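User: Predict the structure for this protein chain, please.
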Amino acid sequence: MIMTSPDSVSPRKKGNTAGALKTKGLGLLSPLQQPRSTNSTVYFTSIHYVLLLQHSIPLAMAQPNFQNLSAAFATASNEIALLPNLPVVNLAEQIQQIHQMLQEMQQGLQNLQQGQQQIRQDILRSDRNNFARLINSSVTRADTPLEPLYDLGGQLIQNFPQTSEEIKTLNGAMIDTLLNSLTLPTNGAVDTRRKRLMKHIGLITV
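Assistant: Here is the predicted structure, written as structure tokens:
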């Protein structure tokens, strides 16, 4: 509560109707703002004090600058357009590239494993054929059984002649089939191709 002295209040009329009041440095009060007085003492409530301040202090609030606001929105729009350039935004694309690289590496590893498997098969086939040639090189009779050789797939060559005598009875087409299974050329006369076959399988003296 704020209390003023009787000298600071001078009512125009006595009785229930109070006149306009003046306070030091605060200007005139409207009838609704006039405080009630008792025994020549005027009591001001906090509401009266706020109303007095509203009349005595002018409002001076800052106003928005729409040009600055427009420029700020334009700047924000330009910066938002650059967001896709951020590494975090491109994370999904980078992950996809990593997955693709991993798949390529796995494919390369698989190809390498297949190549190693093929090399092992080739070595095994070569060893088996060398062993068969060694056995066939010891054949001295036309009716001695021959050791068959293996094709590129690691399988025994089908219709391989059982003896050197049988080789002498093969026609050109049969000889070419055997030569193809052994990845040998098929050019030349039939006798030339026959000798090529016999030499490759290890036959020497027969």
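Confidence is low (pLDDT under 50) at residues 1-44.
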